[in-house]
Amino acid sequence: MNVEPIWQPVLLEEESAVTSHREPGEEFLFYRSVAAGLIDAVQDNCSRGAFENMEGVGKLSDNPVTNLRYHFVVTAAMITRFCMEGGMPLEEAFGLSDEYIRRMDCCTNMAEIVYVHDQMALDFVCRMRHLQKNIASSKQVAQAIDYIYVHIMDRITVNELAEAINISPTHLSRIFKQETGISVSEYIRQRKIDMAKNLLRFSNYDFVEIAVMLSYSSQSHFIQHFRSQTGMTPKAYRKQNYLNNWNVNREDAT
């Protein structure tokens, strides 16, 4: 005889005993950095020990090692999804996730789990960087793209970029346009706006701070570039996309 399940709400602990969860902005920025191939940002996150910092992330088990295992699986799933959205083939993404979860399953302590996490993040981000560079057929354009991703927070000029990879600005401009279909300057603008979108969606930085972080000469210059690339202002973009609309925009709530 089939017995239909009866839904019963889970009784939560007293409010004072419930873990205070931090907003997921930092985690989403990390996932986006992996998917964007931003190796330096991912290395910085790992070196700071962000994954092992359990403050405000939720208690999934009373056992600290088991708790970290569960968070590892969540991280692997999120990185896999973000990288697939970024162009990584489905089987490659799932294959990597499965392999690193198996490796984590063999770990006996938290330090080993953290090490496997960092290896997983670096493996994914390096593969995504390689995908980004595959749009270029020549070594010099690939080097240019690599430089742009590493220095995306800096002010990058065509002359500085050409000097960094040891070719003339004219030659760089010509081969870059041939292989990517857009100019060097336009490519840099697009990548900066991609990073700006991530900061608007997954952080609480204001527009002035984002403009400074991305080395724009002024907030108005940043807004102008953002509008030209997306068709909307940074304020409108954040209102529409902040944390994938999981949270209410604080400015609207006040």
Descriptive notes:
The longest helix has 24 residues, at 110-133. The chain folds into two domains: 23-133; 139-245, Orthogonal Bundle (Arc Repressor Mutant, subunit A). It has 254 residues and is mostly helical. The chain has helices spanning 25-36, 39-47, 64-85, 90-105, 110-133, 139-150, 158-164, 169-180, 184-202, 207-213, 219-230, 234-241, 250-253. It is built from 13 helices and no strands. The model is unreliable at 246-254 (pLDDT under 50).
Which class do the helix and strand fractions yield? mainly alpha
* Main pleated sheet: none
Q: Which spans of ≥5 residues are poorly predicted at pLDDT below 50?
A: 246-254
Q: Secondary-structure element order, as H and E?
A: HHHHHHHHHHHHH
- The mean pLDDT is 84
User: How much of the polypeptide forms β-strand, as a percent range?
Assistant: under 5%
Rg calculated over all Cα atoms: 21 Å
Helical segment count: 13
Shape: globular
Oligomer: single chain
> How many strand units?
0
State the separation between the terminal residues, measured CA to CA.
Answer: 54 Å
Domains counted in the coordinates: how many? 2
- As a percent range, the share of helical residues equals 55-70%
Write a compact overview of the structure shown.
The chain is mainly alpha-helical. The chain has helices spanning 25-36, 39-47, 64-85, 90-105, 110-133, 139-150, 158-164, 169-180, 184-202, 207-213, 219-230, 234-241, 250-253.
Task: Describe the structure using short key phrases.
254 residues, disordered C terminus, 2 domains, 65% helix, mainly alpha, 0% strand, Arc Repressor Mutant, subunit A, globular
